[in-house]
Amino acid sequence: MTGTQVSDADLAARLTRDPQLFTEVHDRYFATIYGYVASRLGTQTAEDVAAETFLVAFDRRGSFDPGRGDLRVWLFGIATNLVARHRRKEARHYRALARLEVTSAVEGHESRVVASVAAKRLLPRLAPALSRLSKGERDVLLLVALGQLAYDEVAEALGISPGTVGSRLTRARKKLNLVLSQETPDE
Amino acid sequence: MNDLQSLHAALAEPDPCQDVIDHSRHRLQNRINGGPGPRRHTRWLAVGTGITVTAAAAAVAIAVLPGGQPAGTDNPTVSADNAAPTKTVTAQQVLLAAATAAAKAPEGSGEYWHVKVTIVRADGPVDPADTWDYWTGRDGRTWFGGLKTDGKAMPGIGEPRQYPFDMYGAGLTLEQLRALPTEPEALKTWIIEAIRNGDGRSSAGPLRDTPELLAEAQFDSLFMLVSTLPAPPEVRAAAFRAIATFPDVQSLGEVPGGQGLLLPGGQRFVVDTATGQVTGASRFVTPEGAIYSVDETGSAEITTEWTDTLPS
What we know:
The structure holds two protein chains of two kinds. By secondary structure, chain A is mainly α. Chain A has helices spanning 8-14, 22-41, 43-59, 71-84, 87-98, 117-120, 123-132, 135-145, 151-158, 162-176. Chain A is 63% helix and 0% strand. In chain A, helix 2 (22-41) crosses helix 4. Chain A is globular. The two termini of chain A are 34 Å apart. Chain B is α+β, with helices and mostly antiparallel strands. Chain B contains eight helices and 15 strands. In chain B, the strands form four sheets. In chain B, strands 4-3-2-1-15-12-11-10-9 form a nine-stranded antiparallel beta sheet, covered by helices on one side. In chain B, helix 4 packs antiparallel against helix 8 and helix 7 packs across helix 8. The termini of chain B are far apart. Chains A and B meet through helix 2, helix 3 and helix 8 of A and helix 1 and helix 2 of B.
């Protein structure tokens, strides 16, 4: 789609008339969804799960209500449901990360871009802690931390109240015991 | 950095590479074109409910109404190329002839199983974006070629597949493919059991849960055996004979590439009864497991071979 950038709301409204437009949804959000899924399941599984997210979203496009939220949030909800089917792979992924010896930033074909060596050194403690969270706590925590969703967006994606989002996030952060500063994310 | 930012920094993975993006978009495009999704119901309940159709029943002639329209045509939208079905050859006769030819066809050998698909349309030249090549090595490694790779073979995504040849929830090694039953009813039973025990699913749920889905998956599996999988001659022959037991397969007469056949849901395919090859189809399953449907303005030409070379 060249020329003027179509807003998400416009795009969503046109999808029922023109299913082919769904490739535009893919173009806009695949990298975002992939990034979230890969951070939870690893790149290998993420390829399939990210692709599957868009297939499921396409099948369900008729049920998406643009008035109730945006496409990105809706896609995160679908992706999170799909990630939930791979609990063991998720646990294995965090365990595998925990075993990585982190000395410097390395990029390769299966690249892990090391944003911060110090943060990566948390991984050995992080892995068991993440797996010990409840599914609800982990989904909320990672949608915020990895997906960069706001509280009301997490609520929309998971179909829960913003209050529940807040309490699950607080519990998750306490369990991870990683509070390094007094900063709290925007509501 | 607060704890959430640390978490992000610890876990974040890099952006997807172009191959991954393209592969996903390809699958989405297949779905938009009419891939798996909520499955259309077929009229093959007899197959799904375990009623056995014997070889004698396979010789049932198809009723033809005056004017040449087959009785009970579910989907009258057939390709403009196809005239009214001829009364002189039935679908079962075509499939049994294909079975005989398939049993005699040479098996071929090589390092890689190569499947080439070209979408052809009645109204124009082949779009370069509409040709794909797939190679599967005996060790399960896969390669993919198409417009974006300039025809070169690019390594497939993911690790080498333990079961390189996929048949709807039943992944098979070449040895297992070669060991499939060579008797039609036994082959059909084997496939149903494999689907029931496998992980095959459509977006409507596990395939094993619904007779209609099972029947469609069973047909797709048989079709893969005669079209895109390196099944040995006797197994391909059995698969043709098994397809011949499905009710409501109709003959479209002679078309480019051989004899045209039509299924109740509108799916079409073309069989060369001299060689036992499926030369074209309106719906096929790619080696990656995506279902590709071509609308009535065209069809997919399929060629397969064993080869020792990968274009690079």
